[in-house]
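so my prof wants the structure for this chain in the tokens format not the other one, which i didnt know existed until like an hour ago. anyway here's the sequence
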Amino acid sequence: MQEVLYSISAGGKLTKSNYPQSANCRIFCYNEKMINTRNTIIFLAALSLIIHLVPFLIFGPHPLGYDTGFYRRYVIQPFTSFPNTPVPGFGENALTPRIFLDIIRLFKFTPDIILYGGYLFLFIIQPVALFFFVRQRFGNRSGILAAIFLIASPVQYTAYWYMLFKSAFAIPLILITFLMLERNSHLAVPFGILIAFSHHTTGIIFLLTLAVYLILNHKRRALTAAVLTGTMLAFLYLHSDSLPDYLSAPVAVFMGWKEYALLSLPLFLMALWGVKGFFYDNPRSTAVALFIVAAAFPIFFLPFYERIFIFTDIIIVVASALGFKNLLNNMPRSRLTKIKLIHLVLVILLPLWVLLNLYGRIQNLRPLVSGPDLEELENIRQIVPNNAAILTSTPLAPWVQGWSQNRVVAPGMLHDTHTVQEWVSFSIGSREEKIDFLKNFPKPLYVFLIPSEKEKFLENFKDCFREDAPYLSQYICND
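here's what i got, hopefully its the right format
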């Protein structure tokens, strides 16, 4: 339809012209695109919020896993500087996540709202960032599907439950940086540097991916080299001291190959239909570069490969979105009824399988502390003086950290210098040997253990402890 419209000429005057329909569409379709993008963001944010609120609704106020206490310790300590003082498990090399929590803390929320609210926000941002990243290369529908599959991914939910805060903060940054690279934007440089200031493991994956992308994509070699150089310098400044520990192949507390494969099997099957679009149609993309790096770690059992499954899963999610879109597109094109039926079954069965795996994760990954454990953790600050140290078990150490501001000591962590054999010798030692072992620990000294562990720990020298609460006892034998 031809319309007579007014347009602004180069001289800034309004002139009458027959405006072609394509140009008309550029004006009004652009506005419609903006509205659709906004609605997509709202939908993805709401869906992610609902999924990640579920454990709080089912299990109570502290439903997540092992690392929770480390980050809660950072939030409950006095606000003395900006950024605030680092704590064990959340140190100086995680500058930007600490600043993120400090900014939220300025609003005077409770510690739990600051910690969990900020964490939920990061998991809302992740699928939105993936949507824009995938849309840039593979189109709008693929971006929406990839974001939905990321939200529903049982592997990503497992990462969420483990309370991997630094990883959750860095993943949107890595996706945004890749998006800037795909758009040939120099904003990729500061975003890349922010990754180095956020998380050690993500920084390594990002740098390796940039190196691969530098080889794959000659057109953006200058920009990629600039991002790589800036990020590398920032990374070495912050993380050079920890590289030897990383290269010594530490074991990550996450999941192994078998568990990952079982949880991701329906996504793998959908990804089979997306292989062509992922590899052959876009061989020089950042997504392909990330796939090469994220696949190499678990295949060759490289250091910390268990945690790299998080990044492998992101790429499988992208490929599965392309595959699912192809299944949907191929259904009406197929002339054979049997082929249509197979496609229909796959379109229904595979996403349902993903949701069933997610449901299983939510049911099985229960709170590590709840009920009486939480009540006893709340007692710590009321009973233990600020200058005292607390000795606890390794599983309880992050939680004692998260509910106190005391120095916490635990076997094998939090700067403990004793060997495994020394702790074993202590557990079976005589009264005199146990007292001698505790001589080097800071005083005053308290012990925080669940009743069954406390009974075993106090064996042979119960008289050296005064019970102040069911989980808490003070060491009273002087050296």
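also thought this was worth mentioning. Residues 1-30 have pLDDT under 50 and may be disordered.
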